[in-house]
Known about the structure:
Number of helices: 10
Number of strands: 17
Helix content: 25-40%
Shape: elongated
Bound molecules: zinc ion
Amino acid sequence: MQATDIVSRIESDIDGDREKILDFFIRMLKINSVNPRMGGPGETERAKFIQTFLASEGFKVSGVDVPDAGYKDGVRPNIFTMIEGKDKSKTLWFLSHMDTVPEGSRELWETDPFDPVVKDGKVFARGAEDNGQSLVSSLFALRELKKLGVDLPFNVGIWGVADEEFGSEHGVKYLLDHGHFKPNDLVVVPDAGTPDGVSVEIAEKNLLWFKVTTKGKQVHASMPTRGKNAHRIGMELALNLDRIFHQKYTKTNDLFDDPFSTFEPTKVEPNVPNINTVPGIDVFYFDCRVLPEYSLDEVLSDVRSEIFSTQNRHNVEIDLEIINREDAGPATQSSSEVARLLEKAIYHITKKNPKFIGIGGQTVGNLFRKDGIPTAVWSTVDDIPHEPNEYSKIDNLISDAKVFAAMPLLAGQASLSQKF
Ligand SMILES: [Zn+2]
């Protein structure tokens, strides 16, 4: 049978399993898995539920328990399973997280966030979109591949990980540090997306928030020479930094909606309450989103040298504090195997032309890229994570499952359309 015939078979099988998939999805969403750092019971029960189902389908499920002394069970569960392919040296992984954020204000929910309701082709529940939909679509994609018993070009597997909503210390960060992924693995993180399902995220910007405190000398505004106006020096420094950033970091990258690095002076802290006092302290902040072509070390070295020269020029003390720093890994190439396979599968199943994009925020996809593992972030969602009345469209759940199952089968396939 041609690979494309097998894909047609997969499509009709998954359509036929719609009720079964929906039933599993609803039962899983009933298990509250709010991150324990956010006051919830954690992932343990949900992980057991998924494990039991996979075992009943004949999968051998493995677990990585990550020690967490602050958690009632002492460890946080991360689970995975896979089907072996011809080339056993690499695995196509679909990685979703099992934890959710809390429901927030109950009054804002029209239904019980932990008792899923099906309405208008959608399933309403906390975690339905983020990240339950993709956990279930990838799980049923894998189940379908196993059921068909087709030869796979390489291993294909799924992960359900812990702790994504609270920084991934007990999830992906631990797994990467402990060698659970290989540089030639293909990783799909279906934890963000767009309603039309065409945006494949392959790059993220570096993120830097910093705070600058200038310490001058406070005096009466009628006798400014006796003091040192921290506000004037702070403004001068902020404007100099702004100019340096915009003159130097001029590269562009069309993957991003704002195709350049952004450097914005944002917050300032109140100084003196009255007009006739020269401020002795000035505090300002910058929010920087820097293209992955640049390193934040370079940006920070520019900040430090400008601070140094401002201090010397005015004989004041100026402190720098880094409030938040997330370095971006190198962008995954649109020509990489994982990006090409996803592109082919999306086109084959949905007949839509995918486009590759970069985003200014950050996902766990970035953690993989920092480790040199090409990673694509994709799913079809209305993009309402963490909101009240969160939902997943059942059609998206089913269609994404088909795309995931098609990916390994389209490896090695030549053009499927004029586009490819
Ligand atoms: Zn998520």
